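DM from R.C. (forwarded with permission)

"hey, sorry to bug you on a friday — could you get me a structure for this? deadline for the figure draft is monday and I only need the backbone to look sensible"
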Amino acid sequence: MRLGGEALIRSLAAGLVLLSASCATPEAPPPASVRAMTYNIRLDTAADGEDAWPHRRQAVSSLIAFYAPDVFGLQEVMPHQLDDLRTDLPDYDIIGVGRDDGARGGEHSPVGFRKSAYDVEESGVFWLSETPDKPSIGFDAAYPRIETWVRLRDRSSRRAMLVLNTHWDHIGLIARRESASIIVEFLSSAMRPCEGLVLLGDFNAPPSEISYQTIAASDLHLKDARRGTVTAPFGPSGTFNGFDLLRAEKEPIDHIFVHQQDTVIRYGVITQHAAGKLPSDHYPVVADISEPDCAAGK
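My reply, with the result:
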């Protein structure tokens, strides 16, 4: 499936602690780098019992504040959770809409960024479906799925950066494959010369899946921060934990993609907990990214 030019234009316009005592304090990113985080915070549902949002809110907010990403993407964020995070993280703007109606309905996949560092040039959202310009369920997906994008301008360097965040379907293989194609097509039109790029999300797809490979092997020349880091990846391979600290998934499903030319200084899957209690059923993923000068050929 491919977006027509008119649909793509419309979609362009439619418009992330409780710390384990054993964990070391993370190093701050170097001055010229960007720290990015993707984090599925798990929706608020009473069915989770002691793991429901009211019992986890402070842990999630504190973790994000402690790791201090410059930009982040969150998934499974219900409207009241978004309100809570905006209250708990006053240093950040968080942009996103509900996937059910393009307003406040249902889960959000918002992009957050440090207020003091960036200005918003433009932002939008599109649905990962046959009708990307309106709320919709696509292909064999179980739920509506969206992509949130924000074009930021660094206040110091004046360089632009395109940040995208998504949450792919957990059921539909076709939906994930087509979601990858839609995102690649969007980026083919939206990317600008000399512009930074960070693609974040819970892709519900390991590197072995064709949907992941559609992005990694595309003509966009992107790389997975985990596979491109100059230092050894920190933490486990798997990023889903199901609120079980002993669960050991073999492959990640939460990813950070950046330009092939970027230097990934460090990458980590953060497993911090409080007495065995995890803040979410996914681990947050953090990467420090250094972009080359524009003259280097991006």
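R.C.: lifesaver. Residues 5-16+32-292 form a domain with the Deoxyribonuclease I; Chain A fold (CATH 3.60.10.10).
me: no worries. The helical segments are 5-13, 53-67, 79-88, 173-190, 210-216, 225-228.
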